[in-house]
Design goal:
By secondary structure, the chain is an all-alpha fold. It has 45 helices and no strands.
């Protein structure tokens, strides 16, 4: 047994030893195999790179990483290949992993730092370049990237020192020389900078960034011919850079070299086959430079060739629309709908837009309903539905429609604007203001959006807020004439003469903004009562032939009269009439001057002749209205305004005047009829809303439906700083039973209009109903005192009745004094 046992042990031991030997041999073989496989992949990757097949090379390198995830060399090669292909984001990922796997790898840190500089991540660039500098302080690549970082962080002296050290080691180092060249540019020595750039390009002619730097230098030196040659060289040596070709095409267009420009645009299209934007750029070029027929042919070819023809079908429709061929534009979209193929939803949206333009509201509704049945969150269709609901004064429905759209696209500017209007018209000023502000912000202060928000703020008397919005919008779009004009007008209104003249300086920089700038300066001088200076500026415009344009002549005459130079004013008008006897503006000014020089009778004769010749001009009715009032002819004045409304096809300003006159004459139904028409024509006007709500509240408060409507309309006045509108809002709130808010709003109105008996009466009535007898007495007594002093006030008996019901009371110590009443 002993021998048998020993034999078994010996056999087992020999077998165990054999297994161990075999296992070790296999492991060694496996190691050899992995290293060999890695070497093979690396070798093939290198050859593929040389052969110009980077994608296949990357596949080989990824195989290396499958075998050894921390293979730094493979990662660096992948990163370089990705960079060469323009995929910088993916390259950065590989550089980051390389840095983590090899704390001593300088190359990866340098490349990462360069990327951080390009993306303006200066703190990260500084960290990486410092690490590289500690590892290899005499490496010119390290010195250059550290110098570039220092330069961007405004450490200019240190940057120049580092770049100079790099150049000492490698005189033609590209990145180091870029720092030194940039320093020369900032110092204003463009000639030296250009010479340095040329020297470096002799060695690094393959470096696109250096070529672009030279191009920029030539542009700064205002050498257009040399800049064009440089751009042509870039396109020749870097033929796949589409942005360079696009810039070259722009240069050719400006020089009238249309064939060359078209060739570049078509080369871009060849570089980007199937790219919609590139194809559209060709179409835009053809439309602008070859005409409609060439553009139409190109679009049709694009439709035939495109995998998705919709962008070009939409373009063709827009092309027809711009050329007043709406039937053809509609036919393009209708063909898509009829075929039931392609972007049927988009075509139906376009057809709905055409239907609205043609005032076919029912058809638009049907099309939008079809779209939303298929695609309930289609924002284009929701925007149309919301706009249609706003037209019908269906504010709650519009708000709900737009809410659905904003849930899908919370930063859609159209939806935000429509939602802002809907909330505002529905009486929720806070939400309306918030939506308009958001629209302005997300549109990056786009001029049309900023102007709409500004109009909203101005209607509510928020001048400072409007000025802030316009200033920011003008900062972002410094060449937008409408923005600058609005900002100048607002600053003149605020009597900010310095600010207005600063805007005038901006206007003067525009191609044809000099006249506008001079008018702003003239208005500023006039506002400061420097009438002679203002007249002199306007005289300069007159000498340039612009005297009859946009009120310049009126402003000149006003300034000359204010400067007591009436004869000069008359001579100016006479000169215009000599050349143009039927000039409306000159005739009106001549009549006004005659009134002061020859008396009212002569002026009336001239005004009546103007009215006979220009019966559709609203302005002459206002002039004649004032003339008839001056003659105490109130009936004649009223009839004149009535005639004016008819002759001018319902001019809104004349309607407002007529409504006020009818109300003053006790014709309340006629007044409300006019206010209704004004409100219908201008539903977003706070003046229209105020006047209608006020009239309904004063004269139809005994009708529950009419009172409810007055309250609903007046609620859109929330947030206004205009005392008259605060009074309307407060009084309607009081009539509707919202007494606490009513008192707060009416106190603001009374503070703004302390000498208006009606406002004081409204406040007194609200305070009396709110159990504040002392303050109510003060307000009502003030209303009656103002009426006794001659202020018009039709509610004397009502005020006296309320006073009679109030107990005598002392001023309450626990309550603040009444704003605007008991301090009078």
């Amino acid at each position: 047994m002993g021998n048998a046992s020993d034999m078994l042990k010996s056999l087992f031991h020999r077998r165990a030893s054999t297994v161990a030997l075999l296992t070790g041999a296999l492991l060694l073989a496996a190691c050899d195999s992995v290293e060999e496989r890695i070497a093979g992949h690396m070798e093939r990757a290198e050859q593929l790179s040389v052969d110009g097949e980077p994608e296949k090379a990357i596949v080989e390198l990824r195989n290396v990483l499958q075998l050894k995830a921390d293979h730094v060399e493979a990662r660096l090669k992948i990163a370089r290949l990705l960079e060469d292909g323009g995929n910088f984001q993916a390259a950065v990922g590989h550089y980051l992993v390389a840095v983590e796997n090899d704390v001593t790898n300088v190359d990866a840190r340098v490349r990462l730092a360069q990327y951080m500089l390009v993306t303006n991540q200066l703190d990260r660039a500084l960290e990486l370049s410092d690490q590289a500098y500690e590892l290899r302080p005499r490496d010119p690549d390290v010195l250059a990237v550290r110098a570039s970082t220092a330069f961007q962080m405004d450490e200019k002296d240190f940057a120049i020192e580092l770049a100079s050290r790099a150049v000492e080691i490698e005189p033609t180092h590209a990145a180091a020389n870029v720092v030194l060249i940039t320093h020369q540019v900032e110092a204003g020595d463009l000639d030296t900078a250009l010479a340095m750039a040329d020297t470096i390009l002799e060695v690094h002619g393959e470096d696109l960034s250096l070529h672009l730097m030279k191009l920029r230098l030539l542009e700064l030196m205002q050498r257009p011919e040399a800049a064009l040659e440089q751009l042509e060289l870039i396109v020749r040596d870097f033929p796949k850079i589409a942005t360079a070709r696009s810039a070259l095409a722009t240069q050719y267009i400006e020089r009238g070299q249309l064939d060359e420009a078209e060739a570049q645009l078509r080369e871009i299209l060849a570089l980007r086959p199937g790219d919609v934007d590139s194809q559209l750029e060709v179409i835009r070029f053809l439309l602008a430079n070859r005409g409609f027929d060439a553009a139409e042919t190109e679009v049709m070819s694009a439709i035939d060739a495109a995998e998705d023809p919709w962008p070009f079908q939409e373009t063709l429709s827009a092309l027809y629309e711009q050329n007043d061929r709406d039937d053809d534009a509609i036919a393009v979209m209708q063909a898509i709908v009829d075929a039931g193929e392609g972007n049927v939803i988009g075509a139906k949206v376009r057809l709905a837009q055409f239907a609205i333009r043609r005032e076919e509201r029912d058809r638009a509704e049907t099309l939008v309903d079809d779209v939303l049945t298929t695609d309930p969150e289609n924002v284009d269709a929701l925007a149309i539905r919301g706009a249609l609901q706003l037209e019908r004064n269906e504010y709650d429905a519009a708000i709900e429609t737009l809410r659905v759209g904003l849930s899908a696209e919370p930063e859609d500017v159209r939806l935000l604007l429509l939602s802002g209007r809907a909330h505002m018209l529905n009486g929720n000023d806070a939400l309306g203001s918030d939506q308009l502000a958001t629209a302005t912000r997300v549109s990056n202060y786009r001029p049309d959006v900023a102007l709409e928000y500004t109009r909203y703020l101005l209607q509510r008397g928020r001048l400072d807020g409007a000025e802030a919005v316009l200033s920011e919008a003008a900062r972002r779009a410094p060449n937008d004439r409408e923005l600058l004009t609005a900002l100048a007008d607002l600053r003149l209104r605020q009597e900010d003469w310095v600010g207005a003249e600063a805007v005038a300086a901006q206007l003067r920089e525009l191609d044809d903004g000099a006249v506008l700038a001079e008018r702003v300066i003239a208005a500023s001088m006039s506002g400061q009562e420097k009438f002679a200076e203002s007249a002199q500026i306007l005289q300069g415009l007159a000498n340039d032939g612009t005297v009859g344009m946009d009120g310049t002549m009126t402003a000149m005459v006003q300034n000359l009269v204010a400067a007591q130079r009436t004869e000069e004013a008359s001579a100016l008008v006479d000169d215009v009439l000599r050349d143009d006897p039927e000039n409306y503006r000159a005739r009106l000014l001549a009549a006004s001057l005659a009134q002061s020089r020859e008396g009212t009778a002569k002026a009336i004769e001239m005004f009546e002749a103007i009215l006979e010749d220009f019966p559709q001009n609203p302005e002459i009715y206002f002039v004649m209205y004032r003339v008839r009032l001056s003659q105490n002819d109130r009936e004649g004045a009223l009839q004149l305004v009535r005639d004016g409304v008819v002759e001018t096809d319902g001019n809104v300003r004349l309607r407002l005047l007529l409504a006020g006159l009818e109300e003053a004459a006790g014709n309340f139904d006629a007044a409300i009829e006019q206010y209704e028409l004004v409100f219908e024509a201008t539903p977003e006007s706070l003046i229209a809303a105020n006047n209608l709500a006020s009239s309904l509240a004063e004269h139809r408060a005994d009708d529950p439906e009419q009172l409810a409507r007055a309250i609903r309309i007046a609620k859109r006045l929330r947030g206004t700083n205009v005392p008259e509108m605060q009074d309307t809002l407060g009084w309607t709130l009081f009539l509707g039973g919202e007494r606490e808010e009513a008192v707060a709003v009416l106190q603001q109105a009374a503070a703004g209009l302390p000498n208006n008996p009606l406002v004081q009466y409204h406040l007194g009535a609200a305070l009396a109903a709110n159990d504040q007898p002392y303050r109510a007495r003060l307000a009502l007594e003030r209303a009656l005192a103002l009426a006794s002093a001659g202020a018009p006030f039709p509610f004397v008996s009502e005020a006296e009745e309320i006073l009679a019901t109030l107990p005598e009371a002392e001023a309450p110590s626990s309550e603040p004094p009444l704003s605007g009443a008991d301090n009078q």
